[in-house]
Each structure stands twice: as C-alpha cells, then as structure tokens.
Design brief:
Blueprint lengths: L12 H9 L2 H4 L5 H13 L10 H8 L1 H41 L5 H20 L2 H4 L1 H40 L8 H6 L6 H10 L6 H4 L1 H10 L10 H21 L1
Helix pairs in contact: 3-5, 4-5, 5-6, 8-10, 8-13
C-alpha cells in the first residue's frame, strides 16, 4: 500500500479557478498563479509514490536481515533525491506565491485575493514537510523497525533450535568415529539412522520454518542426508569410505552451526 499525503485543497487549480471566477476582473486577469499551481500538481502526481509502499519489505524479510538492510539502503539512495526535488518544488511554489501576493496587494480591487494567495503560500510551505522523504517514508521505516524486532525474536527461536543441532551432530560423529577401525555392516549402519544420522537434519528443518534461509545454508548437508541416510547401503559399498564421507559432511555442518 502506498502512503501518499493528501494534497492540500487550497493548492489545487480547480480551487483557485473557482475562487477567482467569482470576480469578473480576476477571471480575465492572468496572474500566473494557475501556471504555478499546475506545475506543482504535476510534480506531485509524477513523484515515484511506489517508494512509499511497505509490501516489498516482506520479501526482504524472508531473505534475511542483511537483505532487508541492503534493500533499505538502496531504496533510500534511489528515491530520496526525487522527494528532495519534490520538496524543493513546493518550497519554490511557496516563494513564488508570496511574490504574487505582494503584486496583487498593489491593486485595491483584488486585495482580498492577495490575502488568499498569501495563505496558499503558507500552505505550500507547510506541505514541504509532508512531501519530505522522512515523512513519506515514515510508514516504511516503522515497518522496518517492526521487522527488525521480529528478526531479534526469530534469531532467538533459531538459536533455540540450533542449540540441539550441534550436540546431535557430535553424537553422530562420536558414533561413526568408533567404527574407524571396524566399519559396521550395511544393516547396522542403517539401524543408526533414526537415533543418529537423521536427528541433525530434523532439527535444522524445524529451525528452517522460522528461518527459510537455513535450507540454503545447509543445502549440501540436507541433500547428502537425503541421498545417503534413507536406504541401507548396497553390499558393494565401501563402508570405510562411506564413514569418512559422513564425517566430512558432519564436521562441515558443525562448523556452519558454530558460525550462526
């Protein structure tokens, strides 16, 4: 959802045209105010309001905290200049309207319009704050703050899950190292799966529900487990080499857990 500030009624061309249309002498007079208002409205309508939508943050949240922060950095870099320019447009409008008001003050017939234009100048000045990047991106920043808090809570949950992974990996490593000199039979090896080999992967999969990026981090480990820890090895399998391969994968996974 885009967060676009409501455009001031007093700065709309139709409002000004209606006001000056009351007086015949104003209707025929080219004050230049209409052109100024048209230019400002055009700048407002052409501003990149898609920058104020907070929906894109949800995708970055799923990708992780680094992705979210990088998105916000690039988003700020991309859109801030445009809104700085828009803010300047309304600052210029305010200044130009003040000048127009002073011009109108010189003619007693249109003095009341001078006051109206002066009030429009004030409204334009106030609106510079509404279109400032800090204002239009306020909802986006609030959503980012909320998601950062979620990351902290999610990180806590992930660590609770991962605290079970390392001991589970250690358990498998310890068991496999006991077979270095006397490899197990293929059946004895398969019998280890439920209580040993599959436990680390199970804990990682549970943690990945809170942090999908863990499936990427442990992609090789999970794939290895799926390929090798489901069915009993064939009779031709070199069990010693298989144990060595298991240990290599498990130790790498242990290192990855330690880095998180």
């Amino acid at each position: 959802m885009q967060h676009i500030p409501p455009y001031p009624e007093s700065l709309k061309v139709k409002t000004w045209e209606k006001a000056k249309g009351i007086a015949a002498w104003m209707s025929s007079r080219n004050t230049g105010v209409t052109a100024l208002l048209e230019k400002a409205e055009k700048a407002f309508k052409s501003a990149p309001w898609e920058a104020t939508a907070d929906e894109p943050l949800a995708e970055q949240y799923r990708r992780g905290p680094e992705a979210l922060e990088e998105f916000l950095r690039q988003h700020h870099q991309k859109y801030q200049p445009a809104f700085r320019q828009l803010q300047a447009s309304f600052a210029d409008l305010s200044s130009d309207l003040k000048s127009k008001a002073k011009e109108l003050e010189k003619d007693e017939k249109v003095a009341k319009f001078a006051a109206l234009v002066a009030k429009m100048a004030e409204d334009a000045n106030k609106f510079t704050y509404a279109v400032a990047w800090g204002s239009v991106s306020d909802q986006l920043q609030k959503e980012a703050i909320r998601l950062r808090a979620n990351f902290a809570e999610r990180k806590k949950k992930i660590h609770e899950h991962l605290s079970k992974v390392e001991p589970a990996i250690e358990k498998v490593i310890h068991k496999l190292e006991s077979f270095k000199d006397a490899p197990p039979t293929t059946k004895a090896y398969k019998d280890l799966f439920p209580q040993y080999h599959r436990l680390p992967g199970t804990y990682i999969s549970v943690a990945a529900k809170d942090a999908p990026e863990l499936k990427v981090t442990f992609k090789d480990f999970l794939q290895y487990g799926s390929d090798n820890w489901t069915n009993e090895p064939s009779a031709k399998t070199d069990m010693k080499k298989l144990i060595e391969a298991d240990l290599k994968v498990l130790k790498k996974a242990k290192e990855q857990v330690a880095k998180l």
